[in-house]
Amino acid sequence: MTDWDDDPFESAERASLSARASGGIAARAMAARPAPYLDDLNPEQRRAVETLDGPVLMLAGAGTGKTKALTTRIAHLLNTGRAQPNEILAVTFTNKAAREMKERVGRHVGGVIEGMPWLGTFHSLCNKLLRRHAELVDLKSNFTILDTDDQLRLLKQLVQAHGIDDKRWPARMLSGILDQWKNRGWTPETLPASESSAYNHKGPALYAEYQRRLIELNAVDFGDLLLHVVTIFQKYPDVLEKYQRWFKYILVDEYQDTNVAQYLWLRLLAQGHRNICCVGDDDQSIYGWRGAEVGNILRFEKDFPGATTIRLEQNYRSTSHILAAASGVIAANEDRLGKTLWTQAEGGEKVRLIGHWDGDEEARWIGEEVEAYQRGTRGLDPIGLDDQAILVRASFQMRAFEDRFLTIGMPYRVIGGPRFYERMEIRDAMAYFRVVVSPEDDLAFERIVNTPKRGLGDKAQATINAFARENGISLLEAADTLVADGAIKGKGGKALGELVRGFARWRAIMLWSAAPAATDDAVIDLDDPLPERPEGLEEPLSHVELAQLILDESGYTGHWQNDKTPEAPGRLENLKELVRALEEFENLQGFLEHVALVMSNDTEDAAEKVTIMTLHAAKGLEFPVVFLPGWEDGLFPSQRSMDESGMKGLEEERRLAYVGITRAERHCTISFVANRLTYGQWNNAMPSRFIDELPEEHVDILTPPGLYGGGFGAAATASPKAQAMRESDLMDRAANADVYKSPGWARMQRNSARRSVRQPTEARNMVIDASATPAFEVGERVFHQKFGYGKVTGLEGDKLTVAFEKAGEKKVVASYVTAATDVPF
Ligand code: ATP
Ligand code: MG
Q1: 365 CB-near residues (< 8 Å, 6+ apart)
Q2: What's the pLDDT tens digit per position in 5-39?
Q3: How far is the CA of 305 from the centre of ligand 1 (A)?
Q4: From 13-17, 543-547, 670-674, 803-807, the region with the lowest mean pLDDT
Q5: Pairing relationship of beta strands 388-392 and 623-628 according to DSSP bridges
Q6: Which of 233, 241, 407, 472 to pair with 623, CA 20 to 30 A apart?
Q7: Secondary structure class of 58 (helix, strand, coil)
């Protein structure tokens, strides 16, 4: 018998319970209080708030006041004395949303609520429940929650113990499979037979073993938080019943994004009194990739027969142009219930559409626009920075904005993650660069000496530290000596030796490549002898190539390539973006200085800040001004999600577009660029197919000043579709020399030339007679013996920059390249 049996509630909650006991009159007095908050609602919302008994499903489009109704419903429950704050279970999607909801409820009921302990995310609520009943699943209440790193290490041990080839069957793959199973609510015992072949038929057994091991460690992973609680509810009906009685009312926001395990949990809790109110929008389901199932919404009416279904159609958030644009896009989805939305806010600014040369240009333009809104130009009232947001599809896109805003001193905040240069992978990568540039940078060395894991324990690291201190030398030097003396042995010692040699080589490459005319014997200064040519290096490397080399040879890129967690692809993209950002600088050192300076350009305390966040994180939020950059096929819709999930993936991307546009209250600007580096390749980007789906009459096409000259700009009055087609046509004709004569293309060419001037190898290539080399054109498809097919993206003397289809972007010597049309097959 456990003590919760007598008294399942924490003391704070008990206190409020007794307050209730003595407060019967108070409760009635509260019930008699007027409810002015009801006056703010339309009749349907009011019905959702006042139908307190029985199941309620509110299924409605964006901005129709679902969250508002849900919040008001909580206030109403409290105000009428139907429930105490701690008897209401309310699920929000983020902790931030939970905080906001509490505040709003407080305002409605005049601040009398004593906190709502059961208002939070699924994870936070389950964590709380599991701590109370841990022993029922053989855990102790002080269990640890493993992060993904720990989880993986554990899985690796199991995989190894089974003699499984980690190369063919990486532990990360197993970790992904287990997450999915947990999202579906499957324990090792309830795993269906259909899964038996998973992970080379070993998945189910390893799952069981992993769960046993976690129990031994008194640990859980994130998926377990929910799964264990569901198991407890299923195995111990008496426990379940207590909570069913205790939570008199259950409310769930963003219901379309619940997964099966969450759904089971809710259904179990609600089955007693059935006072459950769920609100959602099937058009905003954007977490399918994490196991969310829109089908849960459709099942609601089956599971809770007699449910009151409420549909809201008036959108209170956006102007009619914005709403129409969003509706136009989402209409292309086949798999949807379909709704009509209207708004009283007629007119206003149309959705603006604009194309740019590249991501930096896009960031510069948006920076100016943010300032323009802030000042109040174009006859508009000034709109503060807090009311403006930039919503991106992929987090690597943030870098260009952050750099730009730091440069012009515009305060900004990044929601849902650290700022670009503060991200873990960016700091790691820069630590490598720092040690190459200044080998005595101990802080940087310490950061990456065992990242990725090189088998250097605390002891080895302490040895290096002590030796460095004793001898007054840098950690790198100390490591070098210790390795040479054989003082650090084993796998760690070997790996450390490789790292030290790596640093020596990378630095030598940097020095030799940067030396003036390293291949030219005209300049010889005996006081400052030329650096020696590093062995095996035929040609100097640009600092951009060197950076890539460092990340690859150190094993850092591979570390994230092997990582199968959902964050890994994003981190790899961020690394590519970092390397790309390097192009704008003379050398590594210049870049590192830039970062140090912009990061100290501190606008932290500014009162108002523009928000940068991902579309996923923006769910449920609203801003008067919204910018949606990067609407290019491949980036948005994301190629990966289309490759992985086909039509379903595309439809989820389209819902994300719908979520994006519907965040805007008054101004929405969509942009795309002609050149984007994605997955490490410069691409002639095509405007997103979603742009084609924007209804023309609600869109205003802007021409960036001076960009694309008359060619692209002349289309300013054309339909978005025609415009987009013209743009893609331009791309298709890229191989056609005529195009290069257009003023727009000339400008692109100039830009491209300007870019290549920054390459240190340029100067040397100047001596080569360009007429002697085969003539290629930007955009031309070519074939290279080693790298296969690709498209020329830059010309520079006898060298071409080619975006190879398989090998990524490379600089190659023109004479090794053949025009694709000449390849004989
Ligand atoms: P989403 O689907 O994006 O989560 P939602 O349906 O939850 O949207 P809310 O965020 O609740 O919508 O409301 C959108 C905006 O409309 C808010 O600013 C809210 O205050 C306002 N609003 C909602 N209902 C009303 C109403 N009846 N009268 C006036 N304003 C309203
Ligand atoms: Mg909402």
Answers
A1: 354, 356, 671, 704
A2: 333 444 444 444 444 443 444 455 555 566 788 99
A3: 28
A4: 13-17
A5: parallel
A6: 407
A7: strand
